[in-house]
């Protein structure tokens, strides 16, 4: 066992208000190997059942992480799942070989799961049958506790005094077999998650914020799956340059064609065709393939077959009747952009300015980001259409209806009441 492994058995608790105490001078210790070594990758049902049995019999919270292949593959599916629990050790599971992990999810469903940036991993875990009923998000805990840097590596270093290697975070996790250095990195990602959770729980309790964090974690665990985004093609990078409806139709046709190709080939859409090329083609509206080859992104390296498919998408958009062209912008379901408030409703603009100033001051006193104190969109909606009368009860009810948690309502209601009444 290395010195780092021995030290990891007795983790120093360094969290005090987002920074190590003055009397902690020891340099961070590089954590180079998992304390139990690199476990074999689970890739068959027999081994998976053994893991399920072991984790069901373990004690305490379960550290959970997942690796995706963003930028390489289509979608956000998991290509490796890592878990660690006292009494069960660490498990690395290949969800391409074991695509149904619902049995594992059920075995640990009543246990607290510890994740870092839970909302990033929960969608891909849900796809393979794993959803927690109770969780602790160490990144969100760090935000609430006032840590300026909340990445896993920074948190482990600042709170526990260990340095994690982060060199493999953006690799292609769909590769097989996975290289040993990647597996080491993956195992280390869950090595200290529970220790980090315990330290952050103590720190949140010391700051009087533990109940706030528990409400946030409950909201994440109980949130329904997000609905598919409407008109995702509108989020093409550079879309702000496209003003004419016919050009928008070209973006839509090319985006949908690219998405179908990417899904069929199981590659990232950006590897099929970049957003910049789509926007350039929409602006140019090339009438034929020869003209398309002069558009940036469609040069000599592109095959004739590829050019044909992109020109076909453009031609479909060019042939659409006027009534079928997309409308500019998206249906507005909330208040207009704040920059337009001064012209549309000066009184609302004044309310928003006062509310923002009050929320900012309160967040600074509480040593947490404003967006964690209350969602900016929530503030905008309350200020654009304030409840009447704007008293503590009606404002609290409005915040509750917009999804604010009880701790947020208690803290923010007085600030918003003052802003809405012109006393902020």
Automatic annotation (TrEMBL):
In terms of superkingdom, the source organism counts as Bacteria
Show the coiled coil region(s): none
Provide the residue span(s) of the region labelled Disordered: 1-23
Residue intervals of the HRDC domain? 244-324
Q: Which Gene3D superfamilies match?
A: HRDC domain, Ribonuclease H-like superfamily/Ribonuclease H
Q: What's the protein here called?
A: HRDC domain-containing protein
């Amino acid at each position: 066992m290395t010195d780092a492994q021995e030290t990891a058995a007795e983790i120093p608790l360094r969290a005090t208000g987002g920074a190590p105490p003055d009397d902690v001078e020891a340099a961070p210790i590089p954590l180079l190997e998992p304390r139990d070594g690199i476990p074999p990758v689970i890739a068959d049902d027999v081994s998976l059942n053994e893991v399920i049995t072991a984790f069901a019999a373990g004690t305490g919270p379960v550290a959970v992480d997942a690796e995706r292949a963003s930028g390489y593959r289509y979608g956000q599916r998991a290509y490796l799942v890592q878990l660690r629990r006292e009494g069960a050790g660490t498990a690395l599971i290949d969800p391409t070989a074991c695509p149904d992990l619902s049995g594992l999810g059920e075995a640990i469903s009543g246990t607290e799961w510890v994740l870092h940036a839970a909302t990033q991993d929960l969608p891909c875990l849900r796809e393979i049958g794993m959803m927690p009923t109770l969780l602790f998000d160490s990144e969100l805990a760090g935000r609430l506790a006032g840590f300026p840097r909340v990445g896993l590596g920074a948190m482990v270093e600042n709170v526990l005094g260990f340095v994690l290697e982060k060199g493999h975070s953006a690799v292609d996790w769909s590769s097989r077999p996975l290289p040993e250095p990647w597996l080491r990195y993956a195992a280390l990602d869950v090595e200290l998650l529970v220790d980090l959770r315990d330290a952050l729980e103590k720190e949140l309790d010391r700051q009087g914020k533990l109940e706030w964090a528990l409400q946030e974690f409950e909201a994440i665990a109980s949130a329904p799956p997000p609905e598919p985004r409407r008109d995702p093609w509108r989020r093409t990078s550079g879309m702000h340059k496209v003003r004419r409806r016919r050009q928008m139709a070209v973006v839509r046709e090319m985006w949908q064609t690219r998405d179908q190709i990417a899904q069929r080939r199981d590659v990232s859409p950006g590897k099929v065709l970049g957003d910049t090329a789509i926007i350039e083609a929409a602006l140019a509206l090339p009438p034929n393939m020869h003209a398309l080859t002069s558009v940036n992104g469609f040069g000599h390296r592109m095959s004739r077959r590829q050019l044909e498919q992109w020109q076909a998408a453009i031609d479909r958009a060019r042939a659409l009747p006027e009534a079928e062209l997309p409308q500019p912008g998206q249906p507005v379901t909330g208040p207009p952009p704040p920059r337009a408030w001064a012209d549309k409703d000066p009184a609302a603009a004044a309310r928003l300015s006062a509310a923002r100033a009050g929320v900012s001051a309160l967040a600074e006193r509480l040593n947490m980001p404003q967006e964690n104190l209350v969602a900016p969109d929530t503030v905008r909606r309350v200020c654009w259409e304030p409840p009447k009368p704007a008293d503590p009860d009606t404002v609290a009810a409005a915040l509750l209806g917009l999804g604010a948690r009880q701790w947020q309502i208690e803290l923010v209601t007085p600030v918003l009441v003052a802003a809405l009444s012109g006393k902020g």
